[in-house]
Design a protein that fits this description.
The complex is a heterodimer of chains A (438) and B (283).
Chain A (H helix, E strand, L loop, with lengths): L1 H27 L5 H25 L1 H20 L9 E6 L9 H8 L17 E4 L9 H4 L6 H11 L3 E6 L10 E4 L6 H6 L3 E2 L7 E2 L2 H32 L2 H16 L2 H19 L8 H25 L3 H9 L4 H12 L1 H17 L2 H6 L17 H8 L8 H33 L1
Parallel strand pairs in A: 2-3
Antiparallel strand pairs in A: 1-3, 1-4, 5-6
Chain B lengths: L1 H36 L5 H5 L2 E2 L4 E2 L2 H32 L4 H15 L2 H15 L6 H25 L3 H9 L4 H29 L28 H10 L4 H37 L1
Antiparallel strand pairs in B: 1-2
The chains are: A mainly alpha (438), B mainly alpha (283).
Chain lengths: 438, 283
């Protein structure tokens, strides 16, 4: 049955195809009807390929941002897995001591002799005796410790149990066994609360490195905001001049000058600040050092100017001519028109300029690194050295061992910087959108 | 009425003075660097390696390193950036995708260069195992240049009137043919200017190369893309702040700063000259 059915089917199909061919041949002319068809097909495929490449590359920026987020936050998260105490070391106290946990700041204070009584750290009223490994020679001779320090844990255990107020900072390798007399303090993991609320940044301190964000964050904001306060009036003035007053010839001179100002590398600004501004500030204000927040703010103000001027001028030029003419027609003069009509109308663009300028100032690294003196303390005045987040990363990443707590902390700083700038970008976007809806 | 006029004159006078001041600041910086650096520049300074603990010799390895990095980052950023810009301005229309891409590009442009440095170190140097190398540095700088390239290319494409697109399509050309034969050639002068300007921007960047490529002192020239190099901006930073004898290295620093400034000036001027010339040719 199947064979019988198959044969006529095949014959019919062939017949249809032949007929179709004949029809198409007639339609297209007898010669080469196959090739152009194929060529066209190839071309269409090629176009599809190119277009899909284009589509994929449209996502480039998204992919790069995604990669940045993934890698920054992965390395940053590593920070919170590290112990509060320097890696490879532990803290031991006498077994009778009720203390179970010390914060990094307390540990630092104890070993800096700033806290000398356990009651200040929440324990009994007892004097604290900090003990580091090089203090061991006060207790035992080298012979007593053995040739390869094989008796060291034993002796340490003795010292700790004899002195009730003692706290010992010892390598894990020589850690005495835990007993009724010796208690090993649990070194907690570094926690976000200490990081974000900490007031000391001393990442190489022993026994407990101090990772306090506040001095760096405040330093960054302090320098950045002061820079904007200096740059805003200047930038706005120049933007109004460029947008409203300047003639074509002045514009053609001033615009490239501002582009050039944006093009000068930040190290050159930093270098200029270092050799010109810093000595000048030191002399004028009679300071011990010229590397201050003020020097940083001045340099940053100059660096943020091009951004502010360009964005604000765009906004001013976008004010409809009809608004200006209406104002002038009502008898207002040019200046009244500018500050009553043009500036209010372009307010959202100007605010976007300010926000973008702040972003530029906060993220700037090299110039600030070179002129602010890099003292990681909470700033109290403009005329003190400060340290910003980007400068900290640039200055310390080279020395931080890969994968350590310090390394992780610098990546956390990077994440914070990243988040700040994303917020700023989005803010600028939202603010400048408002103008179009108004 | 008179007092209004007076107010206007005062306000405009202030604006004029502020503009003069900004121009003055630029001239001051340029003038200072040129004045101090011009005496240091010599054939020897440009063609020898530093010697004597950075107090004598020249900056040849740094110049060569910077050129390598410029070339490398251009190879990374230009094709990707241009393709991405063509997609957003010609294909993606005006929907949510374009909005999203634009927000991403703006964000990327706003990310501080030091964050790119961290990212480059984490991804290229450590994870992909390129080490401190031209490759890692070029990729990092390329990522940094990407938003600049995309923005300028997009603006250049946007500047072409729609009548050219519709005209070409009406004649039976496909979309790709229109882009290839009409849009790109017309936008070419502005695209090329944008590319040159973005090169100028990244040639002076220091923070991204600190941990991905820059060497403190490396008198020989690189042999492969896996070598470290010296770079001008980093060299200036190093000899400006961390020399053992700051007084003796100062002239070297002035010279390096001048070379950097000259590179930036040349790039800016040649970009605008090229734009003028090409536009004339096209018109």
């Amino acid at each position: 049955m199947k064979i019988h059915r198959g044969a006529p089917m095949y014959a019919r199909r062939m017949k249809i195809r032949r007929e179709k061919n004949r029809r198409e041949k007639k339609l297209q002319g007898a010669h080469t009807w196959v090739r152009p068809y194929r060529k066209k097909n190839m071309k269409r495929i090629l176009e599809k390929i190119v277009e899909s490449v284009l589509t994929v590359s449209g996502a480039t920026t998204g992919i790069v941002i995604l990669l940045i987020v993934v890698f920054l936050f992965r390395e940053g998260a590593g920070f919170f897995r590290h112990s509060e105490i320097e890696t490879g070391y532990a803290l031991c106290v006498n077994g009778g001591n009720p203390i179970n946990r010390l914060t990094p700041e307390q540990i630092k204070a104890i070993f800096d002799y700033e806290i000398d009584n356990w009651s200040l750290a929440g324990g009994n009223d007892e004097e604290i005796t900090p003990f580091r490994m090089n203090d061991i020679s006060n207790y035992y001779t080298d012979e007593e410790l053995g040739e390869n320090y094989e008796f060291l844990p034993e002796k340490l255990s003795e010292i700790i149990s004899k002195t009730p107020g003692l706290i010992a900072f010892v390598p894990e390798q020589y850690l005495p066994d835990e007993s009724a007399d010796v208690k090993v303090l649990a070194g907690g993991k570094l926690n976000p609360a200490d990081f974000f609320g900490g007031e000391i940044w001393m990442p190489t301190a022993t026994p407990a490195p101090q990772f306090g964000l506040l001095p760096l964050l405040l330093g960054t904001l302090w320098v950045g905001l002061c820079a904007i306060l200096i740059a805003l009036p200047l930038g706005l003035g120049v933007a109004i001049y460029l947008g409203e007053l300047a003639g074509e010839r002045v514009r053609n001179l001033l615009k490239p000058a501002i582009e050039l100002l944006a093009g000068i590398p930040s190290v050159v600004y930093g270098f200029f600040g270092l050799v010109v501004l810093v000595p000048f500030i030191q002399k004028t204000f009679d300071l011990p050092v010229g590397e201050t927040a003020f020097a940083g703010s001045l340099i940053l103000a100059v660096m943020a100017l091009p951004t502010i001027i360009t964005v604000a001028e765009d906004a001013i030029r976008n004010t409809p001519q009809a608004m200006r003419e209406a104002s002038l027609g009502l008898g207002a003069n040019h200046w009244q028109t500018i500050y009553r009509v043009v500036v209010p109308y372009s307010m959202s663009g100007i605010s976007a300029a300010v926000v973008l300028g702040i972003g530029r100032a906060i993220g700037e690294t090299m110039a600030v690194l070179m002129v602010t003196g890099n003292a990681a303390v909470i700033p109290h005045s403009l005329f003190e050295p400060v340290r910003t987040i980007p400068a900290t990363i640039a200055a310390e990443l080279g020395e931080a061992p890969h994968g350590g707590a310090h390394y992780g902390a610098l990546f956390v700083l990077g994440c914070i910087l990243f988040l700040i700038t994303v917020v700023i970008s989005v803010m600028a976007e939202v603010i400048s959108k408002r103008q179009h809806h108004a | 009425m008179n007092s209004n006029l007076l107010k206007q004159n005062i306000a405009f006078g202030i604006f004029r003075a502020l503009s003069l001041m900004v121009a003055g600041v630029l001239l001051w910086i340029l003038g200072f660097i040129i004045y101090q650096g011009i005496g240091v520049i010599s054939w020897e300074f440009l063609t020898t390696a530093p010697s004597g603990g950075m107090t004598s010799g020249g900056i040849l390895p740094a110049i060569v390193g910077t050129l390598y990095l410029i070339a490398g980052s251009s190879i990374v950023a230009f094709p990707l950036g241009i393709l991405s810009a063509i997609y957003t301005s010609e294909y993606a229309g005006n929907g949510h995708i374009v909005k999203f891409i634009r927000i991403m590009t703006n964000n990327l442009a706003g990310i501080p260069s030091i964050v790119f440095g961290l990212f480059g170190m984490s991804l290229f140097v450590n994870t992909l195992g390129f080490g401190d190398s031209i490759l890692a540095g070029s990729l990092t700088l390329g990522m940094l240049a990407l938003p600049l390239v995309i923005r300028t290319t997009e603006e250049a494409l946007k500047a072409i009137p729609d009548t050219f697109r519709t005209g070409s399509l009406a004649l039976g050309a496909s979309k790709l043919q229109t882009i290839h034969r009409i849009i790109l050639p017309m936008a070419f002068p502005n695209i090329i200017t944008g590319l040159i300007l973005s090169i100028g921007r990244i040639s002076g960047e220091t923070a991204p190369i600190l941990f991905t490529v820059a060497a403190y002192f490396l008198p020989q020239l690189p042999h492969s893309i896996y070598d470290q190099v010296m770079a001008l901006p980093y060299h200036l930073y190093v000899i400006a702040v961390s020399g053992t004898d700051l007084e003796a290295t100062r002239p070297m620093a002035y010279g390096t700063a001048l070379v950097l400034i000259v590179i930036v000036l040349v790039i800016n001027v040649s970009a605008s000259a090229l734009r003028k010339k090409l536009q004339k040719y096209h018109a």
